[in-house]
């Protein structure tokens, strides 16, 4: 995603007046393809893997709400940002994509080949989710 946005930003800034019109189309196609199989699928695959089974029914919809909220914000901000600075907007989303990629590489745990029990055990003691939900239940 980052590469296609970077290429698009450079093209729009320096080569837009040329007769090569296929570059933006290819960049957008690559962006949509990589986004669909990459970033956009992460919240949906995280729900059953990373949350304790006991709390999936609460945290799953919460994750969906948060993901859709940020999608909505990005969708609403894009036309406003493009109106003020088109090239800066593409560069901004490119940089945010790079930052998000680095963040996910560092923070998101690898779960390939692990069972649900092994994943839950690896988080045991690291997350205070049981205590947090206990406080919420007591407050209600």
Summarize model confidence as the mean pLDDT: 83
Tally of contiguous helical segments: 7
Q: Rg, please?
A: 20 Å
Distance between the termini: 43 Å
Unreliable residue stretches? none
Task: Name the beta content range.
Answer: under 5%
Overall body shape: elongated
Which percent range fits the helix content? over 70%
How many structural domains in the coordinates? 2
Q: What is the structural class?
A: mainly alpha
DSSP E strands, number: 0
The helix/strand series, from N terminus to C terminus, equals: HHHHHHH
Q: Main beta sheet, described?
A: none
GO cellular component, one term: membrane
Domain Major facilitator superfamily (MFS) profile: 1-112
InterPro entries: MFS_dom, MFS_sugar_transport-like, MFS_trans_sf, MFS_Trehalose_Transporter
Protein name: Facilitated trehalose transporter Tret1-2 like protein
Task: Please give a structural write-up.
This protein is mostly helical. 78% of the residues lie in helices and 0% in strands. The protein is built from seven helices and no strands. α1 runs antiparallel to α5 and α4 runs antiparallel to α5. The longest helix is centred in the middle third of the chain and has 29 residues.
Task: Briefly summarize what is shown.
One of its GO terms (molecular function) is transmembrane transporter activity. With 140 residues, the chain is mainly alpha-helical.
């Amino acid at each position: 995603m980052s590469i296609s946005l970077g290429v698009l930003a450079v093209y729009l800034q320096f080569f837009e007046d040329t007769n090569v019109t296929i570059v933006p189309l290819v960049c957008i196609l690559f962006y949509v393809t990589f986004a669909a199989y990459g970033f956009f699928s992460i919240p949906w695959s995280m729900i059953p893997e990373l949350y304790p089974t006991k709390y999936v029914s609460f945290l799953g919809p919460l994750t969906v709400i948060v993901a859709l909220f940020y999608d909505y914000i990005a969708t609403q901000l894009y036309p406003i940002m493009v109106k003020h600075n088109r090239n800066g907007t593409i560069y901004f989303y490119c940089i945010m994509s790079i930052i998000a990629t680095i963040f996910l590489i560092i923070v998101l745990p690898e779960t390939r080949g692990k069972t649900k029990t092994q994943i839950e055990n690896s988080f045991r003691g690291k997350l205070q989710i049981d205590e947090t939900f206990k406080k919420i239940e007591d407050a209600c």
